[in-house]
Every structure is written in structure tokens, then in C-alpha cells.
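Per your request, structure below.
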């Protein structure tokens, strides 16, 4: 078991403790001495506190050595985090998020599409009215027994707006039940933006709370990576639709970065010219890339990812330090989410609630733990409208990160919490066996985010003060 991690980032030395989520910045001397403590004759990762120093210490070093020993004593006595899952009462469930594959079809041909336009390599299909009614009844029945007050409904695909009439019917009927159920429904949509116009846009602006539009940066890069189904340019159409959308505050942009993209920073700067308030950038990390040689060419090497993230963070913190309130920042990146989550210091022993807090329903009415497991028949949980109850795959139940190898030996285990089940399944064939490349990327990014947190604390801490349960730095 590894309960702490020392690393260098941006010319500074850091020490992170897994159990408490405390991050310390070390002087060069303290860092060198801590490295000696980790030598074979010193303290183990979770072993007892060190005995006599491994070499004679100077008068200046002795107090620092004692301070480091005391710190290790204190941190390694912190209890291991325990599961925070609340067991539902009899007749109750914890479902809160539902994803509906309205259209397992698409009008675009994106080079990196992980679910092949929603088809998963099968014939395309739109959800029909009967399947929609069964899915709606399933959701309402589960929501009625749910302990959650806020319910999130996401429309997904493919391109869900290809099936807008069914989306509109589901939306209006769901909202009719809010008062009866005593719940608040939050409707969200992931779209490529090509159909975001006219009456469709008016409807979404009235009833939806968030709309994510996929746009990959500059026109040159976007049209290379996200052409229409017949190779046509789509960037200008999407941008025009966004600019004319009735309520632009609902819009956010999600860009995917491949080996052919501009850098993280260049992509972000290109998207800030479009006037949206939220920009989410993610590197292409296609599940199952080893099954398709083209994905190997699209994936950005981890080394390049980390260099680009560092470049962006240095720019971004310099940028937001000019503002006294996060709400005033014109363009917010999802990087800020990572920083504030780390600052919060929450510990997790399982990665997500796939199949227990979340469900996904495909266009045929089949039920799966989440959108990433849709059409993976081994993980089907049932069918909407069937009498049989939901059946969760054995590998997705009872997971605790401290009981899972190799997570048991990872210093990031209470942040990553074991990682994405679906990604592991596609990369290794087992939802509980993370691929080494996945772990390398997660740990490398975490070090960059820790660095970003310290920079923000030093330069613009007011952006973190709104979190009431922040852990000490």
C-alpha cells in the first residue's frame, strides 16, 4: 500500500498524503532528506516511523529531519477512508442520473467517435414512441422511489436531435410529474450542434438547463476531425447556430484533442472567441483503441498531454488571477473543476455509481449501467417495460479500491477511486483491471493539478474560498 507520494513539478517539490489529501510544498533540502527516508534503511511507504537518520546530520538538518519524522507519524496514523455509500431503505433506491440514447445514428463522421455515431457498429436506429413510453415509465417509477431530490436527464447519441419529436414528448411529460414526485428535473443534451436552430433551439432554450456542443477548436482542425457524414465542412454551421441560440448561457463547448489538434492552450484560445461561458477540453482516449489501429494514431502521447496542460495552467492562472470572483471569469475551463475538487479533499473508495446511481437506456429500451456500457450485452441490466428487476453485473458491485489490485498500491487511489469501469473493460477486458497507460495518464495529470492548486493558492486564493469544506493545503 502506498500512502504518500513525493514529486517535482514546475521547479517545486511536493509531498502528497493519500489518506488525508494533504499536499505539502517542500524546500530542496527537505525534499532531499525525504528521499533518504524512502531508502531501504529508512521508512517504508506505510511502515513505522524512521529510526536514526541514515547519515550524520548537520545542525541545520537535524530539526528538519525531526519535523519530517513527526509529519510522517501524524499522516500515517490517519485512518483509511471508508465507503460513503448510503444504503437505501426498503423500497428506496439511489438513482439520480438517467441517460437516454434517443438516436443511435449520426449525421457526422468524426474520426475518433468512440461509439461509432451511437451505432456501435450495428445498423443505426432511432428510439420509437413505444420504447420512449416504456423508458419514461421506468424513469418515473425509479425516481418516485429515489432518495435524490435532484434528477438529471441527459439526451445522448449519436446525434439526439435527429429524434427531436421523441425528445420533446419525453421532456414535456417528465416535467408534468415534477410536482407530483416532489423532484426537480434537470434536462441536459449532448449535441454536435448542426441541428441546433429554429423551433428546436427555441424549445431547448425554454426547457433545458445545459447544452453541450462538440466543437474541436479552429475551423481547420474541427473540419478535419469532425466532418459531416459525406465529408462536408460543419464548423461554420455549428458556430452560426451557437451565435443565434436564444439563451447562450446554457451553451458549453466540449473539444476533443487528438494528435493532429492544436495544443490545449491554442484550442482553448480559439474557442474563447465564440462567447460561451464554459469550455471543456479532453484528450482523445478511446476505449478499445488497441482494437483499431487508427486510434493509436489519434491518441496524444501522455508526455505531450502533460506538457500542454502545464503550459495551459500557467496561462490560465495568470488569466483568472485578474478577477476577484470565479463568476466574473468570461471563459471557464473544466480544469478549474479538477483544482477545486482536489482542494475539497474528498476521499472516494469507488469511482462512480454505474448501475446504482446512474442508468442508460438505448434506443431499443435496453438498460445499461451508464452510457459507456450501452450495447455491451454482458452488462445489460434488463429492458424497459419488462417485469423482471434490474440486474447489475457482478464486477460492478461491491467494489472497494483498497481491495483491488493494483489500485491497492497506488498513491492516487482515493482520488481516482479505481478509474472508469468501462474504459478498463475496453482496454483490458476486465472492468476492475486498469491498463498501465490509463494509470500513467491519471497520475501524471494529478501531479499537474496539484501544482495548479498551489499556484492558485499563492496567486488567486479567492477563487477557492467559496468551497465551505476545503481541506488545508
Amino acid at each position: 500500500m502506498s500512502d504518500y507520494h513525493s514529486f517535482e513539478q514546475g521547479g517545486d517539490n511536493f509531498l502528497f498524503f493519500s489518506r488525508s489529501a494533504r499536499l505539502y510544498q517542500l524546500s530542496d533540502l527537505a525534499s532531499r532528506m525525504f528521499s533518504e527516508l524512502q531508502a531501504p534503511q529508512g521508512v517504508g511507504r506505510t511502515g513505522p516511523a524512521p529510526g536514526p537518520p541514515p547519515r550524520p546530520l548537520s545542525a541545520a538538518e537535524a530539526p528538519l529531519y525531526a519535523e519530517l519524522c513527526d509529519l510522517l507519524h501524524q499522516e500515517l496514523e490517519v485512518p483509511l477512508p471508508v465507503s460513503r455509500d448510503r444504503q437505501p431503505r426498503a423500497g428506496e433506491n439511489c438513482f439520480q442520473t438517467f441517460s437516454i440514447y434517443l438516436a443511435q445514428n449520426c449525421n457526422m463522421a468524426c474520426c475518433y467517435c468512440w461509439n461509432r455515431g451511437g451505432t456501435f457498429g450495428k445498423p443505426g436506429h432511432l428510439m420509437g414512441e413505444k420504447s420512449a413510453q416504456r423508458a419514461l415509465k421506468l424513469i418515473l417509477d425509479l425516481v418516485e422511489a429515489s432518495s435524490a431530490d435532484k434528477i438529471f436527464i441527459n439526451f445522448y447519441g449519436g446525434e439526439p436531435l435527429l429524434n427531436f419529436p421523441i425528445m420533446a414528448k419525453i421532456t414535456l411529460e417528465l416535467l408534468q410529474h415534477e410536482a407530483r414526485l416532489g423532484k426537480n428535473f434537470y434536462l441536459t443534451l449532448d449535441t454536435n450542434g448542426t441541428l441546433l436552430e429554429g423551433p428546436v433551439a427555441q424549445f431547448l432554450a425554454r426547457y433545458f438547463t445545459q447544452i453541450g456542443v462538440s466543437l474541436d477548436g479552429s475551423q481547420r482542425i474541427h473540419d478535419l476531425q469532425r466532418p459531416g457524414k459525406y465529408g462536408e465542412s460543419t464548423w461554420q454551421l455549428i458556430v452560426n447556430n451557437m451565435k443565434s441560440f436564444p439563451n447562450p448561457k446554457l451553451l458549453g463547448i466540449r473539444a476533443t484533442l487528438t494528435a493532429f489538434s492544436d495544443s490545449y492552450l491554442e484550442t482553448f484560445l480559439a474557442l474563447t472567441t465564440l462567447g460561451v461561458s464554459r469550455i471543456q477540453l479532453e484528450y482523445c482516449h478511446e476505449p478499445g483503441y488497441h482494437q483499431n489501429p487508427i486510434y493509436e494514431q489519434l491518441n496524444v502521447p501522455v508526455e505531450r498531454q502533460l506538457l500542454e496542460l502545464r503550459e495551459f495552467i500557467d496561462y490560465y492562472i495568470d488569466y483568472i488571477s485578474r478577477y476577484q470572483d470565479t463568476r466574473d471569469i468570461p471563459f471557464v475551463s473544466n480544469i478549474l473543476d479538477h483544482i477545486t475538487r482536489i482542494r475539497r479533499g474528498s476521499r472516494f473508495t469507488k469511482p462512480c455509481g454505474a448501475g446504482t446511481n446512474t442508468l442508460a437506456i438505448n434506443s431499443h429500451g435496453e438498460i445499461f449501467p451508464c452510457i459507456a456500457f450501452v450495447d455491451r450485452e454482458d452488462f445489460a441490466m434488463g429492458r424497459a417495460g419488462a417485469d423482471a428487476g434490474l440486474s447489475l453485473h457482478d464486477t460492478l458491485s461491491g467494489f472497494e479500491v483498497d481491495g483491488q489490485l493494483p489500485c491497492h498500491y497506488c498513491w492516487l487511489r482515493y482520488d481516482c477511486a479505481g478509474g472508469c469501469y468501462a474504459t478498463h473493460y475496453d482496454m483490458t477486458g476486465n472492468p476492475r483491471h486498469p491498463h498501465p497507460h490509463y494509470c500513467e495518464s491519471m497520475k501524471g495529470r494529478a501531479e499537474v493539478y496539484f501544482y495548479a492548486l498551489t499556484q492558485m493558492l499563492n496567486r488567486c486564493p479567492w477563487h477557492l474560498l467559496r468551497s465551505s469544506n476545503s481541506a488545508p493545503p
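Confidence is low (pLDDT under 50) at residues 39-48, 467-473.

Regards,
D.
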